[in-house]
Amino acid sequence: MKIVVLSDTHMPRMNKKLPERLVRELKGADAILHAGDWTRLSVYEELAAYAPTYGVAGNNDGEEIVRKFGLNKLLTFEGCRIGIVHGHGSVKRTGTEAHAIAAFKGVPLEAIVYGHSHIPVLKQGAEGSPLIFNPGSPTDKRKQAQYSFGIFRISDGSIKARHVFYANKNG
């Protein structure tokens, strides 16, 4: 199973359309995860045309998106449990990653997906600890060298994760 993982699209402010590099991967996706800051429900509608799309609201999302998605979500794909949260909130002392992990404290998971920082993260936890994954942003790299999103491959009850990096958000 192939899952495309993204966050922080901030559309249409940061880009008028989904980047072509992302669209190429969406065409073969079995599911899509979005970790918040869609900013418009039309982004969900566009993604859902490619594959079943799941996500959470971020700090830049309005009430309509908060009502539709909520602030955190637990999903199961082929026996793998994935927690999704944007990661915003009281993060100054602990950081976005720690805030995301705390959102699922005590919940048995194979992966935690979060956004907010626009910083790509891939950390494979020790045995029994979840994979920690931030896809970065496909449209707003901020101080990062490149734009990014993620791909999860799920088989035999395990997740293999990677980032896709690219320099041109329109290409």
UniProtKB/TrEMBL annotation:
EC top class named in words: hydrolase
One of the record's GO molecular function terms: metal ion binding
Required cofactor names: a divalent metal cation
SUPFAM superfamilies with a match to the protein in the record: Metallo-dependent phosphatases (SSF56300)
EC code: 3.1.4.-
Domain Calcineurin-like phosphoesterase: 1-156
Pfam family, one: Metallophos_2
Top-level taxonomic group: Bacteria
UniProt KW keywords: Metal-binding
Entry keyword annotation includes Metal-binding: yes
UniProt family annotation: Belongs to the metallophosphoesterase superfamily. YfcE family.
NCBIfam families assigned: yfcE
Name this protein carries in UniProt: Phosphoesterase
Source lineage: Bacteria, Bacillati, Bacillota, Bacilli, Bacillales
